[in-house]
Amino acid sequence: MQFCQEDAGEASPERAALAAEQARIGTMYERLDVLRAHTADQLAEVQLQTHTGYAALVERETRAYEHARRRAQLSAVEEGLCFGRIDLSYDDGPEARYVGRIGLRDTEHETILVDWRAPAARPFYAATPSDPLGLTRRRHLRVRRRRVTGLDDEVFDSEGLSEGDRRQLVGEAALLESLHRGRTGRMADIVATIQSEQDRVIRARLAGVLVVQGGPGTGKTVAALHRAAYLLYTHRNVLERRGALVVGPNTAFLRYVSDVLPSLGETDVVMRTLGELFPGVEATGHDPHATAAVKGSPLMADLVAAAVVDRQRTPREAFGSGDLVVEVDAGAITVPEAACRRVLDTARKLPLAHNTARKYVVRSLLSELARAESTLLARPVQDDDLPFVGERLWHEAPVRRALDALWPDLSPQRLIRDLFSDPEALERVGELVGLDAESRAALVRDPALPWTVEDVPLLDEAADVLGRDDSDERARERRAEENRAEEVRFAQGVLEFTGLAEDEMMNAEALADRHRDEGPRRTTAERAGEDREWAYGHVIVDEAQELSPMAWRTVMRRVPTRSLTVVGDVAQTGSAAGTRSWTDALEPYAPGKVHVERLLVNYRTPAPIMAVAADVLREAAPGEEVPDSVREEGDAPRGVRLSSLPDGLPGVVAEEVAAIGEGRVAVVTSDRHLAEVVEALPRAARPGTAGDALEESVVVLTATESKGLEFDSVVVVEPDALLAQPRGANDLYVAVTRATRRLTVAHTADLPGVLKRLEG
Ligand SMILES: Nc1ncnc2c1ncn2[C@@H]1O[C@H](COP(=O)(O)OP(=O)(O)OP(=O)(O)O)[C@@H](O)[C@H]1O
């Protein structure tokens, strides 16, 4: 049942209902205005405080931080502050509960608006006719600029409604209205129209690995982002300290989804592509399919470990002589082979990473060299003095060079660059771990080339095996830890003294953390983003089917608690070493703790386009189900035969631009035709160039780049070339499922069999 301002008659009950809701909504906005003014006053007042001393400073900074955050939150909720109402029936009478972006209380502390993430709001999303959760009615409110423009009611009246399907949509009219809106190049939040199957995903418990598997357009991404907002709200204490990380396939995608969390009032989340997970490297390019397949394979972990051992050499391996002979100022000094071997064997057995064990190697060999020098000079030296003599020798270049050749200080970049640019080393190390000649050849690269996305997990693996000589740092940390308990006690005192503890603005641990070395200005997200070893409280991985076994190792290092949301569709896997089975990929990391939820309804693509997609899916992933489209009706997809791309494509694209009006068109092509398509459409945008390509009216993308995105109209170019790519059927499936309204397939050759439906 649905009504809006325009169709409400003079004194109709509908008009009365609108007026009543308008009054309620008006009260909420009045309250919002009061709170905003109050928060602005509080912030100004805090900023003017001039008391000195640590407690006053802490109080000022904590209050300023929280007031500023509250102010940002209050200003982000202006549009769509309240979007729903649920009516519940209790023995002692009915209750009407309003649901919105944030919670609000009136001056009497009575709740006038429930935060959408709060347990009290759950029935709004989760109730179905077969399980109404105590609701008699659910109402969606359409509000524009503080004015109630329409209502959409569902009555959960057991007398009047038949047993419904559990998957029945909630608020169908509100949902369809939001789905019909033109695309803007940025994903919007769906807080007003979350569906019950999505709500289960959003509110699932924090612990363990939640996999959200679903076909294209089933709302996996948007549900995962709402889950992040929900978790940050519900588990603020844990997540504020450890932070949350969202991993997406590329920067265009991250930009596409970047408005969702701020619109839900959450800004403190780290968003990274896989190519950015290793601080200091920003990889965007990909390796060719064959190389990517090798680099993603779990054998690479063995290869990296073996490459490190390969750099730990005896004098014979490094210089061709059994003894270590070094030319120093005093003359040639010699450490016998047996002594060298003893030091190196011991170092290899130490339970230490390579760079940490180096300290032992260097110290021990310097002592041996010091002894050798004293023999050469016939000047006996006491054992106690060896370190000093060694220290002096360390300043002689030949000594450093010799020790570096035996056990070098290695950065991950140096290890991988040296290995991949040295076919002999690759052969030596590769053979040890069982890597065949073809795979070894695929790894050889020019050291001057930039890192690829597929290199990043290898660098991360190397960093793990190499370790860092962080003994100074650790000594500092030990001292800091000793102070920490004291600081937490002190912070607790400050919180109690200032009354901040009662306001629940902050806990003592978080306050103590904030005032440690780094000072209060850096947010958790900033600190986490720069630290490779940061352990996040929760990690969300989107388009997760693209992750190789090596990439999973990288992600898992960032979340030792294994609290993850993994979002993807194994039918869309395009990358060479991508995931085919969630269980195989994830169970080893969290045995018994992997839970798969399936989303089955497609909110993006109308049924006529999904019929085309279904034919492609049978080829790409036989046995996988095509999700049901919410929208039955839609423009018929079409095939257009062109004499050539330059002659025909601009006309097809112009027709699409005209057909969709304000919306966005994507031209999706194979890697092979990319340059030709770009040339044929000189005014179309490309990702990675200035500005936001997705906000332009026409953008050209490869199938890989189009993953996770959506457009009002999609023109797929030369489908046979897409099919000919490795995992080409998956790529074509991705391409044809990006459209929200129109799909055109432009081709110069015959249409491939899977698209025969478009002939005629
Ligand atoms: N409950 C909902 N209300 C309104 N819009 C929705 C809802 N669920 C999903 N959508 C919309 O459907 C579209 C597809 O959602 P999303 O991109 O999250 O799907 P996906 O499953 O991640 O797709 P893909 O696998 O193709 O990347 C988006 O525009 C999203 O806003």
From TrEMBL:
Residues reported in the UniProt entry to bind ATP: 214-221
Superkingdom to which the source organism belongs: Bacteria
Record region (Disordered): 621-643
Basic and acidic residues: compositionally biased ranges: 628-638
InterPro entries found in the cross-reference section: DNA_helicase_UvrD/REP, P-loop_NTPase, UvrD-like_ATP-bd, UvrD-like_helicase_C
Keyword Zinc tagged: no
Keyword Hydrolase: yes
Domain UvrD-like helicase ATP-binding: from-to ranges: 193-606
Signal peptide (UniProt feature, chain positions): none
Keywords, in A-Z order: ATP-binding, Helicase, Hydrolase, Nucleotide-binding
Pfam families in the record: UvrD_C_2
Protein name, as recorded: AAA family ATPase
UniProt source species: Nocardiopsis codii
High-level lineage: Bacteria, Bacillati, Actinomycetota, Actinomycetes, Streptosporangiales
